[in-house]
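Quick one: co-fold with adenosine-5'-triphosphate.
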Amino acid sequence: MKSNKKNLLIVEDDPGLQTQLRWHFDQYEIIQATDRQDALDQMRMHEPEVVLQDLGLPPDADGVTEGLLTVQELMKIAPHTKIIVITGNGDQENAIKAIGLGAYDFYSKPIDTDTLDLIVQRAYLIYKLEAQNRQLKSQKHDSPLEGIIASDKQMLSLCRTIEKVAPTMATALLEGESGTGKERFARAIHSLSPRKKKRFVAINCAAIPDSLIESELFGYERGAFTGATKQTPGKVEIANSGSLFLDEIGDMPLSLQAKLLRFLQERVIERLGGRNEIPVDVRVVCATNKNLSSMVADGSFREDLYYRISEITIEIPPLRDRGSDKVLIARHFLKQMAEEQKKSITGFTHETIQAIESYHWPGNVREMENKIRRALIMCESKHISANDMDLLSSSTEISLNLRHVRQEAERNAISSALSMTDNNISAAAKLLGVTRPTLYDLLKKYQIHVT
Ligand SMILES: Nc1ncnc2c1ncn2[C@@H]1O[C@H](COP(=O)(O)OP(=O)(O)OP(=O)(O)O)[C@@H](O)[C@H]1O
Ligand SMILES: [Mg+2]
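Sure, here it is.
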């Protein structure tokens, strides 16, 4: 049985010193090595946090070459390990060389075990703190952005991209199906930028009649058209020194695209009916659920504008492709809404979880939000049923799918084993870790013919 003691590797060829150290450090699980190869083998096997290593090792027991080489190679395979080298009395020079190679500390003979004890204890402490630090850093790396629920790998990497893009002035284009969170991410870009204290102004090009978009965007002077009773700034001007979010940019009328391009290139606007050029300083983020490149191909979107707005394109994956995020987001909404509405609904039935996982989610996160809201109204128990969410239970579909996936994987593995072994049944069976009769059964099951 493995003890709970910490591993301490002692690399020492002198049997007397070995015994003394082993005896003294009995609170640790002592692993011993007498030369370089032995030390490397023990390191691979036990991964000790701390190593006590003599610099004079055979075959150069009177020199330091072998000892220094050992430090170097140990650091290569286990760079976080704390190596304390034991040097000959007064051999500062080689001690410093060892530190240069990555050793943590040195101690000169003759050995006073109590002092060495303190050095070893401190080495374990430093190792532990560094390990915690690494873990904290990696947790940060694995966290989504504020207000965004995600654990799926591609979503986390998307969050990292947003963090990199946010502080720059690059015009970002967010592409994604309806309800995937384009606006959410656009706001995240703004709030992670130096402009976060300034305004985030959104304009939805699909929601405004074509005839009004221009005045909405660029504003107008008094008398510019009938009903223009006073000078009115447009959204671009209002967003000055902040961010402008051009939502559904694919719906921008072709007639206005040239004007928008001019603003993006020159960063000046002219109000409708005005004669002055007004400089504006805005960060622009665009979003679309349309395929802009095919719109460029069919002539409904200007190519030059497309390139201008897509300096950085960020594709937001549909919810159905986000693995376990579906259930994670569902739980998040449930908790949030149940708290808001003071309802004591605590979770989903097993069947609902399966239905959430297998449903196609054409309306993405927004649809999830709506379905959970509905479920909270419908639910009569502590757990939301698939019916409450207006989802068909699909448990049978899932198990069938899973079986299908397994069979497919099995079939593929058998085919590749056969091709790797030139259809040698014994060799293929060995590769697959099954007996010959089992492989014959499987070949029959999958109707794989071996010639
Ligand atoms: N990862 C997420 N975590 C939590 N909430 C999210 C997430 N993604 C989106 N939402 C929420 O889902 C809803 C839809 O998001 P959003 O409006 O940003 O999507 P959209 O892509 O702009 O949709 P549309 O194309 O319909 O305008 C919002 O209420 C948003 O707060
Ligand atoms: Mg939107």
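If it helps, DSSP finds 18 helices and 16 strands in the chain.
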